[in-house]
């Protein structure tokens, strides 16, 4: 049985594809069949695009955190049932007014809490806006993760460099979750 052809019909083996091992190839496919690099020039252009996406991801995370605070403040201004808002992490905490007062206005991590009132109709609107921004942030992170999974060293370096540059510029003075988490 030697000499058997194990290739699949219709497959062109001369074209680059996604590799599942670490590589430094200049010819590769990134996520979509149409996003191919066939040499150093197209690889450089793709690396620049990946760098820009990773940098933009850091900007968007900073933007979403700022918008999140504004949306929580607007929701608090319309009144409604009390929820505790951690302004440093921008997470809604399900504490009651009495529990918050008993804790001296501080959560376990010691960050300042503010009691906000959220109206059911306006509160849902603001929560929906927050959810849309979070969905976009998750999509961007997962898309960048797929680029990282090309296992191409040049692309991986572009992701890391873009993330570092974006973090340096847009995440100054902000504590919070790591931006390397894809979602």
UniProtKB/TrEMBL annotation:
It holds the Pfam family Ctr. InterPro entries: Cop_transporter. The keyword Transport applies. It is a multi-pass membrane protein. PANTHER family: COPPER TRANSPORT PROTEIN, SOLUTE CARRIER FAMILY 31 COPPER TRANSPORTERS. Belongs to the copper transporter (Ctr) (TC 1.A.56) family. SLC31A subfamily. This is Copper transport protein. It comes from Caulochytrium protostelioides. The lineage of its organism: Eukaryota, Fungi, Fungi incertae sedis, Chytridiomycota, Chytridiomycota incertae sedis.
């Amino acid at each position: 049985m030697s000499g058997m052809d194990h290739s699949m019909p219709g497959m062109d083996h001369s074209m680059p594809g996604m590799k599942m091992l670490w590589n430094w190839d200049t010819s590769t496919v990134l996520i979509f069949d149409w996003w191919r690099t066939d040499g150093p020039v197209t690889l450089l252009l793709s690396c620049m695009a990946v760098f820009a996406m990773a940098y933009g991801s850091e900007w968007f995370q900073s933007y979403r955190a700022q918008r999140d605070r504004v949306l929580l403040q607007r929701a608090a201004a319309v009144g409604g049932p009390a929820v505790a808002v951690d302004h440093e992490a921008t997470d809604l905490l399900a504490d009651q007014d009495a529990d918050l007062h008993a804790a001296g206005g501080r959560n376990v991590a010691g960050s300042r809490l503010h009691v906000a009132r959220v109206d059911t109709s306006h509160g849902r609107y603001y929560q929906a806006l927050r959810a849309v921004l979070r969905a976009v942030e998750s999509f961007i992170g997962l898309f960048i993760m797929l680029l990282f999974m090309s296992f191409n060293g040049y692309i991986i370096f572009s992701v890391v460099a873009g993330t570092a540059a974006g973090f340096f510029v847009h995440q100054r003075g902000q504590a919070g979750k790591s931006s390397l988490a894809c979602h």
